[in-house]
Amino acid sequence: MPTKRVLRVNELIKQELNRFFLRELDFALDTLVTITRVDTYSNLIESKVYISVWPETRKADVLAFLKRRVYFIQQELNERLKMRPVPKIIFLAEELTLEAAKIEEVLERLKK
Question: What is the homologous superfamily of the domain 4-111 according to CATH?
């Protein structure tokens, strides 16, 4: 169970990265990138940032773009957050939303 501090750090990182994504990063116009959740280790060394991409076919491109820019993104986050240490950011694809959509589709078919 995460501590209150870790939960606050997760939310803070999510908010700052969302702002940064909106203002600073240029994703393709037909691509929607959403941060679904942030999981930070209790020692605050590392944060896993899970993203959802629509359309799904662009997921690999977006992850590759974010991984190329992770150093720049990390620097910006270090400047924006008023805490030390700032956890190292790792971007991962959110698989739960895709699985939830598949389950929802199966349930809809069963209803008919």
Answer: K homology (KH) domain (3.30.300.20)
